[in-house]
Fold each of these.
Amino acid sequence: MKNQINYLFTLLLFTVIISQTSSASDIKKAENFKLKDYNGKEYQLSDFKNSKAVVVMFIATQCPVSNSYNSRMAQLYQDYKGKGITFLGINSNKQESVDEIKDHAESNKLDFIILKDLNNVVADKFNASFTPEIYVLNSNSEILYHGRIDDGRRESDVKSKDLRTALDEILSGKKVSVSETKAFGCSIKRVN
């Protein structure tokens, strides 16, 4: 009986160790998706597999936190678009129309692709909760960074430029040193 208990305990311990080891080494990947931009043009994530990185940004037109980042998002796009980085804005809020997204993008000089996620399907796949919330993917759609753009809603309060740091590390061939930060902002207003 004692040998059976020892055997079962050893088996249980081994199972726990294996499951922890495999989950720690698993790389999170984003599923391919297809969405239309505010002009009706369809894009899918796999269209950008030749990019050095793809920055997926869940953004909003009505969220004051997301709006406080408009100029920073526009500047990030300008600073990195010529370096092989693709920026995709995704609007998953049920109450924000395609026309509103287009007007918002034009008035805030958000020149990157902005896609409408009807029924928040892509937000659900990413498990995104906030606007703004950022995911940086490599060419294999592996998530290299997830979290915030930086640590301050007001630009004057920023101490840590997390997204910029991650992109610079990727461009220099380094591993992203801080791959997860806490995103903050307005909750995504889901259909269900």
Amino acid sequence: MQEARFYRIHDAEKHQVRCHLCAHNCIINNGKRGFCQVRENRKGTLYSLNYGRLISENIDPIEKKPIFHLLPGSLSFSIATVGCNFRCKHCQNYEISQYPRLYGGEIAGTMRTPAEVVAAAKEAGCQSISYTYVEPTIFYEFAYDCAQLAHAEGIRNIFVSNGYTGSAATRELAPILAANNIDLKAFTDKFYKEVCSAKLQPVLDTISLMHQLGVWVEVTTLIIPGWNDSDDELRDIARFIHSLSPETPWHVTRFWPTYQMTDRAPTPHETLRRAREIGLNTGLKYVYVGNIPDVAGENTYCPQCGKTVIERSGFSILANRLDHGHCPACKGKVAGVWE
């Protein structure tokens, strides 16, 4: 255990604390845990129960995050603990994100130090460390310690996030965070409340703040039939992303039935193509189709002349024709972090 950060005493007499790490801002009674189930109040001191307890350590292509505009073709050392501050009914990683709820509060995982994580990343030839699979904010203390060390060693840090990080933690993390792929799961409070047990506005706020602070942001929307696949909602999402920057990549990805949402079919390919067209017609320069083979929707095109500058197949780079971030045909700039 390690003392948690971003909390304060709420009621000293009752040993009650308030956690400000994420947008839930939980008031936590003595002996109880926050919504994430991995932060526990013990007589007025809040502890991170999952510090260094890694449930997953993998070497992934950076495209799997998905991050398409930072060091394409490179490897990313991916880590996670148990726990999450969302309760998504369609979570593909529910076995670890909901682990404490499924197993009576148990905090599973193998103990690691930040130095061990960074050393493992270097040994594997990874150019980045991704904090992923569950919401990394819930293991913020460990992620931040790893990120500081990685940053000093010249290794990039990547969050794959639901966007519920509190503003104070966001501001502290941003200087050592190279990229953040943030899920914008829908554009209604109904979806966030009923599917994720959360709210929409804090996600919009985090996406905007990360962008303002200079972090390279890519946005992902998993399109679920009957939930967030209408033209109006997809257009609202695209317009919001465009308001950040037309150069912000948008990944529209295929839903597969899982966990508590097995009552609907996988997303039709045509829906994803329609979403991509909506994004492009809104003015976004980079819109990608994911979780299903789609040659047109996987490649990166020069926004000036339309030439293919990066060819992809799934998580693999078939050809990278960029010349120091520029199109070799027209010399136009392609947004991203390429070197």
Amino acid sequence: MPKAKGKISIIKIILTICVLWAGIKYYNAYQASQAINYDIIPKRDSKEISQEELMSFLPVWSDYMDRHISELGKRPVSLASGAPEDNLSDEAKEWLLRRLWYPNRFFYVEQRLRTILKTIEYQAQSENLIKELSRQYAALQAQQAQNSNPDSNLSSLMNSIENMIKEQKAKENVEKISPEEIKLVLPLRTVIKDALSKSQTTDMTGTK
């Protein structure tokens, strides 16, 4: 009998070791499956944004705002930090990484799109102003042509209008937005504007 009990104890020990070993293997496999695969996250670093990047950004941004992801981890905002990604908790950063976005690029695209929208709006306003100034200039020019001697007052006004037109054109694209980006965003500006206008009750990143 003692020998039989000894064999049973050895079997139990072996079974316990096997169970533990299987558990460790399963845990390691689970951890590996949960690990972030940085190799598949696009490394975007260009100043301009592409159509592929825009199409990838919009649904993730919408989900990010709807789910209040910036509140994950309840990390307090750092007043010394000017970058939204620096105020994200590790949980929020992981959420973005699992959706194939590096946080710094994610918020870069957000800000870039806001700048492009502002540029498009400013250019539309500028074009209307330049048209009106050009009309006024043409009227003064026609009036000046009727004078046998140039009118100094008219010449001064025309010079002022010319300078205003030049200044207006110089300000049309101070952000150096490329024509390709304007062409990309222009037909989608309403959709993009609506997406970026989403706000959260408590936005820990300070991004709206």
